[in-house]
């Protein structure tokens, strides 16, 4: 079975996303589940449940907390993480699965490798993402082309090697921290190109707190590399 973990916070496009997942999975003939970890104050959880998703109220804080909860609840042998705003197109799911079949434990959807791109971002958002990727690669030593991408596929066995509860980040830096830990435990990380389209409805959840936390986590991982 394949699991899809989707953190949500007031997501007007959630039904369109789940419809896309349904379509791709039906075409592939694969069993799947959709797990929504929600902290909305609108009707997002109701609309997700109407589409057959398993909806859980988020008990921790931040994106990292939601991902941690969802990864622990997922039953699949392969577990995808995706944004709830339809920025991550389910049409790319077969690409991830094909890359996993090559022997990788984790596959990251990359906006930065050949064939990948971002549609709809302004200069500030591009600069923030570029800086975060450079910091993560230099400080944490994670050699992945797009280590801040949230569109990923994990083998269950890879997640068993990583202590999710011990991770420090509750924000966007969770994406960096989990890769750092996975690589330390011998996981093979691959990448596939994706097209990332900025949300057409709703507001971005990325804030200044997330940026500062990413810097803090990057520095902490750098010190761990040095043996401190």
Description:
The chain has 228 residues and is α/β, with parallel strands linked by helices. It has one domain (2-225): Alpha-Beta Complex (Spore Coat Polysaccharide Biosynthesis Protein SpsA, Chain A). The chain is built from 8 helices and 9 strands. The strands form 2 sheets. The chain has a 7-stranded mixed sheet with strand order 3-2-1-4-7-5-8, sandwiched between helices. The mean pLDDT is 92.
Short description:
The protein has one domain: Alpha-Beta Complex (Spore Coat Polysaccharide Biosynthesis Protein SpsA, Chain A). Helix content is 41%, strand content 18%.
Q: How many strands, what sense, and barrel or not for the largest sheet? A: 7 strands, mixed
Structurally, the number of domains stands at: 1
Strand order of the largest sheet: 3-2-1-4-7-5-8
How big a fraction of the residues is strand? 15-25%
Order of helix and strand elements from N to C terminus? EHEHEHEHEEHEHHEEH
**Within the CATH hierarchy, at the fold level, what is the topology?**
Spore Coat Polysaccharide Biosynthesis Protein SpsA, Chain A
CATH architecture: Alpha-Beta Complex
What count of helical segments does DSSP give?
8
- The shape is globular
Say which CATH homologous superfamily is assigned: Spore Coat Polysaccharide Biosynthesis Protein SpsA, Chain A
Gyration radius, rounded: 16 Å
Share of helix among residues?
40-55%
The tally of beta strands, per DSSP, is 9
Low-confidence stretches: none
Taking the alpha carbons of the first and last residues, their distance comes to: 40 Å
Q: Give the CATH level 1 class.
A: Alpha Beta
């Amino acid at each position: 079975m394949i699991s899809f973990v989707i953190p949500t916070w007031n997501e007007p496009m959630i039904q369109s996303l789940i419809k896309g997942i349904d379509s791709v999975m039906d075409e592939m003939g694969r069993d799947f589940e959709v797990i929504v970890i929600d902290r909305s104050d609108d009707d997002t959880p109701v609309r997700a449940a109407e589409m057959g998703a398993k909806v859980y109220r988020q008990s921790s804080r931040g994106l990292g907390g939601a991902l941690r909860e969802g990864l622990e609840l997922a039953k699949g042998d392969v577990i995808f993480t995706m944004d709830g705003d339809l920025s991550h197109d389910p049409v790319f799911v077969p690409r991830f699965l094909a890359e996993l079949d090559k022997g990788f434990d984790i596959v990251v959807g990359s906006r930065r490798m050949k064939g990948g791109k971002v549609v709809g971002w302004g200069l500030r958002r591009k600069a923030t993402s570029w800086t975060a990727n450079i910091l993560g690669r230099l400080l944490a030593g994670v050699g992945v082309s797009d280590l801040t991408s949230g569109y990923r596929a994990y083998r269950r066995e890879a997640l068993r090697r990583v202590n999710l509860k011990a991770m420090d980040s509750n924000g966007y830096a969770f994406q960096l921290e989990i890769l750092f830990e996975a690589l330390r435990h011998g996981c093979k990380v691959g990448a596939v190109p994706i097209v990332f389209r900025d949300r057409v409805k709703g507001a971005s959840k990325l804030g200044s707190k997330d940026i500062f936390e990413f810097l803090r986590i990057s520095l902490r991982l750098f010190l761990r590399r040095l043996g401190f």
